[in-house]
Amino acid sequence: MKTAVLNIFRLPNIYAVIIGLLLQYCHIPLSTNFMQAVELLGGASIPVVMLVLGMQLAMVTIKDLDGKLVAFGTVIRLIISPVLAWGICSLFPISPLSKQVMFVIAGMPPAAMALLYAIRFEAKAKLVSSITLISTVLSFISIMVLLSIVKWVT
Question: CA torsion, points 50, 10, 118, 42, in degrees to nearest 10?
Fold first, then answer.
């Protein structure tokens, strides 16, 4: 447990968030040139993450897949997550529109960031990339279903 907590503080994202919050809190403006550089890096991040996902999927073969775990991860992400989001939102005084948005967002496929963390922490990257792929493909159907029932989630 101690190692897991220490590993979190080795991520540059944590320091970036802390610095960003401090700058915001202290009302320190950033130069236009700096912000342009940040926007360029931000624009490049999605293609790089997709490249990493593709490289990881290229190493996965059908016999590497653990069908039960991939199915389990996909069901959790596409079906159970929206139900849990709806249940949690029902406990709080949240506007109907916010509940509907959270319900749909909870049913989206996992982001590729999960894969980057799995690679970074050596935690079954092939499984994570397989779940990301399968749930993204199936999300075309699940999102249509979520959008058709979202009007009842209030």
Answer: -10
- Counting DSSP H helices and E strands in the chain, the numbers are 8, 0
Residue given tokens 């989206």 in the structure block: 108
Q: Which two tokens stand for residue 30?
A: 């950033």
Return the SS3 of 51: helix
* H or E element in which residue 154 lies: none
pLDDT digit string (tens) for the chain, length 154 residues: 677 677 777 777 788 889 989 999 999 988 899 889 989 988 888 788 778 777 777 777 777 677 888 889 889 888 999 999 999 988 999 898 988 888 888 888 877 677 777 777 777 878 888 888 888 888 889 889 888 888 776 6
The burial of 60, by beta-carbon neighbours within 10 Å (0-12 exposed, 13-18 middle, 19 or more buried), is given as middle
| H helix or E strand, kind and range, residue 152 | none
Identity at 92, one-letter amino acid code: F
Q: Which two tokens stand for residue 62?
A: 């059908």
Cα separation, 83 vs 131, in Å, equals 19
